[in-house]
Amino acid sequence: MDEGTARELARDVIRPCGLLGYLIGRGAWWPSEARLKLGKRAVSKVMSSTYYLLAPVWQLYPSLDPGKVGDALSLAN
Prior knowledge:
Layout: H1 3-25, H2 33-53, H3 55-60
Helix pairs in contact: 1-2
């Protein structure tokens, strides 16, 4: 896999996680604080699993690792 394909794959996997984070951040619609905490915990697990799933990509292309390079996947746009 070349770097361009790796970048597209990582973006396609990580972008939905960002949307989940957005939903949690806009948590005014949650019925209670307890439910919001459960939601945050669930989203956190999804995000950490996604990062773990992409570990082989980060090993091949460290420049794409968002944990090491700020906005490595150009998702800030």
